[in-house]
Amino acid sequence: MAEVLAPAGDDAAFMAALNAGADAIYLGLKDFSARKSAANFSLENLNEYTRYAHAFGVRVYVALNTLVKDAELEDFFHCAREAWNAGADALILQDIFLGKLLKETYPEMVLHLSTQAGVCNIYGARLAKRFGFSRVILARETPLDDIRSIASEIETEVFVQGALCTCFSGQCYLSSFAGGNSGNRGFCKQPCRKKYSIDRKGYEAQTYKLSLSDLCVGEDVGRLTEAGVSSFKIEGRMRSAAYVGAAVRFYRNILDGKNGEREQDFSDLKRAFNRGNYTRGLAFGQDETLISSSVQGHMGECVGYIERIEKNDKYTFIRSDFVPLDGDGFKVIREGKEEIGGGVWRSFYPRAKGGFCLPRLPGSRVGDGVYITNDTSLAARIGQRKRLIPIVADGVFKAGEAPKVVIRGAFGKREFRADFLAQEAKSRAFSKEDFCECFSKTDHFPFAVSFGKFENDGKCFLVKSAMNAFRRSIYGRIFEELSCGHASLEERTILVPEEEIKPFKTENIAVIDRGFSKSLYTRASIDFAIFQPKNYKNIEEISAFLDISKYYAWHKYLYFPAFMTSEDLANTEKYLNDFDGVYSEGTYALEFCRERGIALFAGTGFNIFNGTSARVLRREGVEHFVLSKEMSFSEISGSGCSDAFVFSGGSVKVMELCYCPFGKKCGDCDRRSGYLLKDEDGREFPLLRGENSGCRFELFNNVPLVAKRRGGMLYDFRALTEEEKEAYLTGREDAVLKGRTAGAAKRGIL
User: Fold this and answer.
1) For 405-462, what is each residue's pLDDT tens digit?
2) β-strands 600-602, 624-625: how paired?
3) CA distances, 590 to each of 96, 131, 489, 712 (Å)
4) pTM for the complete prediction?
5) H or E element: which one contains 736?
């Protein structure tokens, strides 16, 4: 059966997950964790938690899933080995290239490839498998058919509950370019949860245009089971222990077929955390529940409505069957969309039949819904759960012989002999009641003891203190056996490829664009033309680019976004050989191109963040690649890759959206190719439409990038005017561009 995999951001969440019935728990350390804001765990206490989990047969996975700078590589490899030695059952990594080196150096390690690596098709799965990963954590956007094919290739983990990222995993740079806080480094400031408007009729109001509902696959986990999924993952390392416990119990009972508890489980889940109700997610296709544009944050569960304002105008009466407890928190929400405010119920508030009172909120009115967001009884119930290991104790006690105790359980049968002899009883002999009284005490060990066979000659006497010590020894030895993990690894030298990065000629320029006009490139030459069709199925559009290319000596490459389904890739086969190669933002293309003997230009989406990863990529036969657009010039120089391609100017893609932000209302769609997304500060971000298997959108930064350097330069022209494009190609950016950013080039990111 597929495992229920729970998050743990702190020790309380860890214990809640275990006690609720999780099969595995994933957590982060203080460093290299994509959830830096969680309390997290230390290498010093990790062994304690892994040992406790292992006693229950629960696995622990440690997330080291951020991008790693050159200066951090030694610490990263040390941290990975120490996490493994502390008992981790697997390490979760984002950088597939560093993972390859780890596996080559420590073949004993079990590696899982993070969702941040963006595995969304069979080629990404094959690459992960070839690099030594035993499991892939799929991108949340992966459709069911691709999940099925990937699961036939490698062990597969799929998100079933929790927050959804607006952007395709590993490709979000909005937080980074907005303030130097990179999601790829664990510091995301969640700009996607802010209000925006779009310059399209009906979308002009400032609402949460980019905010997605929380995922809740629920009973559809059965369809994922049929697809061969190995692990059902609950997101939430930033969530409370109550949320973790409720989510684990919800899925545990679904998988165990406990239908009678379903309604209560779902109620608990909504009260623990619920952002605008739930969506089943993109695996099953976009529906009307995907975008949560009205209510932001936790909205809980509706328990009643405001029936009247009390005469003193100080309180509102809530009609409800719910009986609140002191400390319960509530929100008032109008028509399920507009959040009016909230309050906490106190035991000294006035009571009334058929409901309860809350202090009156300014702006609230009769008919507004009242939602519970902090149910103190739920937290108490989850905190009281205790998972125990069932064992059966048998005993044989005879005068003149060493007492024998046999412990039986799921682990088998273990026999223990005391190091003392039973004495001849002078008065009352040792009885079964005495045996049960002694071995019912489990001290700090999590055992649930029942009793089986008891043999006694009726003549023996046992000193109580000796029996207590014997019991503690038995339970200690069993727990030690159950909690032990794998063998530790001695430090080994990481064998980094020694290939030098070949220098490019200074004027080597690559350009990404959706259209290459003759007039522009007659006046300015480039070396690589990377073409992104608006519609990958439009042969006329492809042919138009190929016709223009006949007039120029550039190398023509077809652009692959980070998210490409198997269907998307199949659609390119009919014209792929007309190009000199593929430029891809997703690492899956490494395998796709290798199998077809096609040249690969590895894009910024590969997130090559250090020289070691670059050299592993070069060892794979990739000649052209772009370093991460989050690296500074000083970091580029320090990496030994100063002559690789660097993203030097143009429009900065900050998000790849794999869904329609207009709710997929195709009937009244205006089909424009571009829009402007405006934030609350008036900044306008270009939002461009594209098509593969369905509409996709790309969001670009509000100002273009100017990061002048020598060496291989990559320009992205997709959201620029012809005048702005020409300015870059002729070196007149400063004179033409009204606004600009240097991005991470000078100041870097955290």
Assistant:
1) 999 999 999 999 999 999 999 889 999 999 999 999 999 999 999 999 999 999 999 9
2) parallel
3) 12, 11, 31, 21
4) 0.95
5) helix 733-736
Distances in Å between the Cα of 359 and the Cα atoms of 331, 345, 350, 535 are 12, 8, 10, 56
Across-strand partners of 557? 530, 581
State the pLDDT at residue 530.
Answer: 98
**Buried-exposed string 690-709: b where 16+ CB fall within 10 A, e elsewhere:** bebebbbbbbbbbbbbbbee
Q: What is the pLDDT of residue 504?
A: 46
The amino acid sitting at 717 is F
Higher pLDDT, 362 or 597: 597
CA distances to 9, 173, 190, 540, 549 from 166, rounded to whole Å, are: 22, 12, 10, 32, 36
| The 3-state secondary structure of 500-556, one letter per residue | CCCCCCCCCEEEEECCCCHHHHHHCCCCEEEECCCECCCHHHHHHHHHHHCCCCCEE
Copy the structure tokens of residue 745: 């080039």
DSSP letter (8 states) at residue 728 = H
Q: Are strands 423-424 and 460-461 parallel, antiparallel or unpaired?
A: antiparallel
- The burial of 540, by beta-carbon neighbours within 10 Å (0-12 exposed, 13-18 middle, 19 or more buried), is given as exposed
- List Cβ neighbours of 337 (8 Å cut-off, separation of 6 or more): 294, 295
**Taking 80 as the threshold, does the pLDDT of residue 499 lie above it?**
no
Numbers of helices and strands, H then E, in the chain: 21, 37
CA-to-CA dists, residue 23 to 69, 154, 201, 230, 659, angstroms: 33, 19, 49, 11, 32
Dihedral of CA atoms 295, 299, 303, 308 in degrees, nearest 10, equals -50
Q: Is-contact 449 435, C-beta < 8 A? A: no
pLDDT on residue 541: 95
| Backbone conformation region of residue 595, classed left if phi is above 0, alpha if psi is from -120 to 50, else beta | alpha
Domains along the sequence of the chain with CATH: 3-164+212-284 (3.20.20.70), 301-384 (2.40.10), 389-483 (no CATH), 509-652+704-736 (3.20.20.70)
370-392 pLDDT tens trace: 999 999 999 999 989 999 999 99
Contact 318, 358 (CB under 8 A): yes
Residue 321 reports pLDDT greater than 80: yes
d(CA 529, CA 550): 12
Tokens of 306: 């405001």
Cα angle 81, 85, 90; round to 5: 75
Average pLDDT estimate for 146-162: 98
Where b means 16+ CB within 10 Å and e means fewer, 294-329 reads: bbbbbbbbbbbebbeeeeeeebbbbebebebeeebb
Neighbours of 155 (CB within 10 A): 17
By CB atoms closer than 10 A (0-12, 13-18, 19+), residue 596 is: exposed
Residue 337 has a pLDDT of: 84
Which residue has 């106190």 as its token pair? Answer: 346
Q: What is the DSSP string of 26-65?
A: EEEBSSS-S-TTS--B-HHHHHHHHHHHHHTT-EEEEEE-
Of residues 687, 697, 695, 512, the one with CA closest to residue 603: 512
- Mean pLDDT over 88-92 rounds to 98
Other residues' Cβ atoms within 10 Å of the Cβ of residue 259: 10
Q: Cα–Cα distance between 80 and 75 in angstroms, integer?
A: 9
Least confident window among 68-77, 339-348, 422-431, 729-738: 729-738
Q: What is the pLDDT of residues 622-662, one digit of tens each?
A: 999 999 999 999 999 888 886 789 999 999 999 999 999 99
* pLDDT of amino acid 352: 83
Tell me which residue has tokens 């001849």.
424
Residue 318 backbone phi and psi in degrees, to 5? -105, 115
Cite the DSSP H helix spans in 71-206: 73-85, 96-105, 122-130, 144-151, 174-179
Cα distance between residue 630 and residue 170, in whole Å: 12
d(CA 365, CA 334): 9
